[in-house]
Automatic annotation (TrEMBL):
It catalyses: L-threonyl-[protein] + ATP = O-phospho-L-threonyl-[protein] + ADP + H(+); L-seryl-[protein] + ATP = O-phospho-L-seryl-[protein] + ADP + H(+). SUPFAM superfamilies: Protein kinase-like (PK-like). Residues 92-480 form the Protein kinase domain. This is non-specific serine/threonine protein kinase. It is an enzyme of class 2 (transferase).
Length: 487
């Protein structure tokens, strides 16, 4: 089996040898979780839907939220793409839609070779030419062009900062870009390496959404190497690390071509709308052939290229205390974020679940901070006093909070203050659950390595951002060495 470029690079340069680790972690995972089979993705309840669960539903004409057609209007125009379309002056041929978002659709495409000659010679070159596939993001014509240019700038930095760093292949960057001009506007299109699926989908190939600990260690190490590249060489803070923004590579060279051939020779479903045909998304590439996949950090549209920031960032459940409390943030905010993400992958559930008691879909900063106090203990009065003396950081322009108020600081944005700066007292004591430490919560890890796991997590999940270890130091933590068993 041939490894991808990222896997091969990691194998050669990582202090943890990727191939033996994956083989041994596969064996440990199979032993610890039998029966464990390589199956297609299961349907889930109460989870973010997979792409195949938000497809067109011809038998429900009133359901307009299963594809991007309900978002298309005069101010929000998707570029109409169909299988077989050729774009970028004949460079790419469309195969099928992979997915969609509020401001774009993503398509699987084949890069067309430019074969010399005619007749038999042209056929000869076609046979010799290896198929090359890409994923193309077609941005809406009304998308903020400055935001896209910012993303392109981030990708330029990712590509050139230090290509020799072992983390460079572990971040997905833009391979190409082009524009399509229409009567309604210009669509900026970004071309990426195609990857199998998000880590959020991948985790549910395992029972309970728990990636076996030996295999998880390999992935965590790889992602830390990638994070170190972002922070130390590119000077980029991702700010939006979540399961949907980490993708895994194809485990074998045959998976993508086989699926592409199936799609090219099958009739693809679509729905006629006033804005043109909207095609069904096909993002399931079938059962895994092995676990030899490499995780890659993606989606840099929210990335920050400075060493310090203050404005609201991060997914709700992974938001760091310094963001909520207005202390300002730097690269260490990604470390907190990543620690939470590891917990989700290991346990199958988020460490913090900061929903409002009477409105489960509403994020509640008070509940979030209260749960942090329960798990981590209360922040020290000295830390709170030190941060209070440094003053409240403000941002511009003003941002609208959940109540519709325009805010320029975290205190007003997140409904603060939450602590008394003079005493360090939490101002919402009734919201704090009974104390339950990381060790108490980590029942999904065997007793023989739970202490090491908790020590590893405690190096990331701290109130004080300055106390968190950097990505490179974390990548050498003893817990990442294989040897422990899953409970």
């Amino acid at each position: 089996m041939r490894l991808s470029k990222a896997a091969s690079f990691l194998l050669c340069q990582s202090p943890l040898s990727l191939s033996p680790l994956i083989r041994s972690s596969n064996a440990a995972a199979a032993k610890a979780t039998r029966p464990l089979t390589l199956t297609a993705l299961p349907k889930r309840t109460g989870q973010t839907p997979f792409e195949e669960e938000i497809l067109l539903q011809d038998d429900n004409k009133d359901n307009n939220n299963n594809n991007e057609s309900h978002l298309s209007n005069k101010k929000n125009v998707f570029y109409p793409v169909s299988p077989g379309d050729v774009v970028a002056e004949g460079k790419y041929s469309m195969i099928s839609k992979l997915g969609w978002g509020r401001n774009s659709t993503v398509w699987l495409a084949e890069e067309r070779g430019r074969w010399p000659g005619r007749g038999r010679w042209r056929n000869f070159w076609q046979q010799k030419q290896q198929q090359s596939f890409v994923a193309i993001k077609f941005n809406n014509c009304n998308v903020d062009q400055d935001a896209i240019r910012h993303e392109l700038d981030m990708h330029q930095r990712l590509a050139t900062a230090d290509p020799t760093h072992r983390g460079s292949p572990l971040v997905r960057r833009v391979m190409d870009s082009f524009e399509i001009r229409t009567k309604v506007g210009t669509h900026l299109c970004l071309v990426y390496q195609p990857l199998r699926e998000t880590l959020g989908c991948y985790q549910w190939r395992f029972p309970g959404g728990r990636i076996p600990i030996p295999l998880l260690k390999v992935y965590v190490h790889a992602l830390l190497v990638g994070l170190d590249y972002l922070h130390s060489k590119c000077h980029i803070t991702h700010t939006d690390l979540k399961l949907d923004n980490i993708l895994v590579s194809f485990e074998h060279d045959s998976v993508l071509p086989e699926r592409a051939r199936q799609l090219q020779h099958s009739e693809q479903m679509f729905q006629e709308t006033p804005y043109g045909r909207v095609f069904q998304s096909y993002s399931d590439f079938g059962p895994l052939k092995s676990y030899v996949s490499v995780p890659m950090i993606t989606d840099f549209d929210q990335a920050d290229d400075g060493d310090f920031g203050a404005y609201p960032i991060q997914p709700d459940v992974y938001r760091a205390p310094e963001v909520l409390l207005g202390w300002g943030w730097s690269h260490s905010v990604d470390i907190w974020n990543f620690g939470n993400l590891i917990w989700t992958l290991a346990s199958g559930a988020d460490l913090f679940q900061p929903s409002h008691p009477t409105a489960p879909s509403t994020y509640d900063p008070v509940i979030h901070l209260a749960q942090m106090c329960s798990v981590l203990g209360f922040p020290s009065p000295a830390l709170l006093k030190q941060r209070a003396q440094s003053g409240a950081w403000k941002w511009t322009p003003a941002l609208e909070n959940s109540k519709g108020e325009l805010c320029t600081d975290a205190c007003s944005f997140y409904g603060g203050p939450h602590f008394d700066p003079s005493t360090g007292e939490f101002l919402h004591p009734d919201a704090v659950p009974s104390p339950q430490s990381l060790h108490d919560r980590a029942t999904f890890v065997g007793e023989e390595e739970r202490a090491s796991f908790v020590d590893f997590m405690s190096k990331m999940l701290t109130w004080d951002p300055a106390a968190r270890l950097g990505a490179d130091d974390l990548s050498h933590h003893p817990w990442l060495v294989l040897g422990g068993r899953i409970k």
